Amino acid sequence: MKTIVPANPIKVFMRQGEIGDSEYLASNVAFIIVDGPPDFPKLVFVTISGTPIPSSNVAFARVLIDGAWVSHD
After folding, report:
1. Residues of the chain with pLDDT under 70
2. Contact 8, 63 (CB under 8 A)
3. Global pTM?
4. 20 to 30 A Cα–Cα from 18, which one of 2, 38, 48, 66?
């Protein structure tokens, strides 16, 4: 298991419960846990409040670069 602290702020977006297709919950990432074999590692994003979010629950993410939130969907 390895813990990574991102150099730039990361925000993950996920669908949950009764939220419609165009609405997402967003959380700021404090650190990322990488676990498992090198070929297929399991990623878990841990929020600032300490809530673990498995990568399978993440719809997309954005990274703050030069003052703009950048996404690669």
Report:
1. 17-22, 73
2. yes
3. 0.81
4. 48
